[in-house]
Amino acid sequence: MEFNPIDVFLHLDVYLAQIIAQYGSWVYALLFAVIFVDLPGDSLLFVAGMLAGGGHMNLYVLMGLLFTAAVLGDAVNYTIGRYFGHKLFANKDSKIFRQDYLQKTHAFYEKHGGKTIILARFVPIVRTFAPFVAGMAEMSYHRFLMFNFIGAAVWVVSLLYAGYFLGGIPFIAKNIGSIAIALVLIPAMPVVIEFFKMKFAKKEA
To answer: What is the pTM assigned to this prediction?
Structure first.
């Protein structure tokens, strides 16, 4: 079976069962890499848990590996932010390191403080930039590490268990595509709400 690499990485949750069938245990390494680099992960974790519930993967091996990947990924992100952050965002016209993403994350971080590292795990975009902003703000690494461990554990365990226990329900199994979209959109709502609050605040000012 052949896969389009771009399509696989953009819709990895859809192809996961096919990847397991073709590559076997190598899927663990692939999932580790995806979570480490922080590609879209919420729906992927849910589907991985669902497939573990069907006997295709070991749930507790998944938990250990993906928890480690999530912690290491944020630790690297924090380090980059601490030592190189200001240089990366110096170009206002950058397509990758966009100022508006950084501003949204910084606003979210300012409002919720250290717990942002935990909350951000469930919010796309913010999840990527929260540890980076923590590094730029020179947050104590020991404090960051504590929130990093808690956030990674809650995120990975809750979504894997959700998929493991709920994935066998026929309605959920038949509508996994819609659920995957919901897992991306619903956690993003706090960012959207904060964005519009900031917009209205500027207009009133």
So the answer is: 0.77
